[in-house]
Amino acid sequence: MIKSDSNPNTIFHNPILHPLMPIKQNNADSEFTSLHIKLPNALAQQGNLEWFNGSCFSLTLAVNAFGSYTAKTNTFDVSPGTFFFSRPNTFRKIEWSDTTEIHHIAFSERFLAKYAGVALFTSFPFLLLETVTPKPVSKEMLNDLQKIYVQINNEHFGNCPFKKNIVANLLTRLLLQIKRIFWDGYDTKFNKNIEHDIVTRFIKNLEEHSQHLQQGKAAIQLRVKDYAKMQGIHENYLYTVIKARTGKMVSHWITEKTVFIAQNLLENPLLSIKEISYKLGFPYISYFTIFFKKHTGFTPKDFRKNSMA
């Protein structure tokens, strides 16, 4: 049996697999990873690997595999021709009992924004769902999804200097297909109630303020009470709804977005680190440095140096 599990700190590791197993696995990548397992039936139950990057979304297509998938406290059966996705920062576990072919992709919000210009939650609001039952797909849909997965994997391991842009755009195409097949109309028809509206408006306001900060149209970072005030509700109610519906606290959403903006701004050599820290609401560079290193593992100076390399 192949077992894999994760917590928010789990990162990808090179799999320990049978030497004859035809598998490609890239080095650890904090923003994107592609994995394609395809092996003969005789080797189907050999191997042990960890699948999840705690800071990434994952899209898994079980072409020909049996097992179970656990997200938080919910466990679901997985069978051939099923698709499922999971969100970052949640406990996730997969146990494969019989596996011959699987496609698995992990990506960050920043990867799509940076290389394809896609605002993730605006374009694909179904990714806000905290727990999703694995979805069965028809043979035709399975073939369509598999073709895109293969294209993504081939480009990811290719040598094209623009491969990240190509992969990000293919990933956008994959997400559009997934949205069309499973969640068409989710943002306008499914689960349309007060709490859903609160979540949708919060994400919209967060995205808009993020853009304004990066464009210089806003000078201060908004706090929980500011986002609650924008909807005319108490901040405790906003906290409760966002936590219940997305699994993350409002402050967590704001922190992730602040790191996201900081990374983008640090890639602009025309902005000093002092300017960026003030723009994000930090009164001192030292506060910004401590915050940024805590959430990325790098100081702003080191991150800028690496991104310019």
From TrEMBL:
A GO molecular function term, named singly, is: DNA-binding transcription factor activity
Location of the HTH araC/xylS-type domain: 200-306
What's in the keyword line of the UniProt record? DNA-binding, Transcription, Transcription regulation
Q: Which InterPro entries match?
A: Homeodomain-like_sf, HTH_AraC, Tscrpt_reg_AraC-type_HTH
Q: Which Pfam families match?
A: HTH_18 (PF12833)
Cross-referenced PANTHER family: ARAC-FAMILY TRANSCRIPTIONAL REGULATOR, TRANSCRIPTIONAL REGULATORY PROTEIN
Q: What is this protein called?
A: Helix-turn-helix transcriptional regulator
- List the source organism: Flavobacterium zepuense
Lineage, uppermost ranks: Bacteria, Pseudomonadati, Bacteroidota, Flavobacteriia, Flavobacteriales
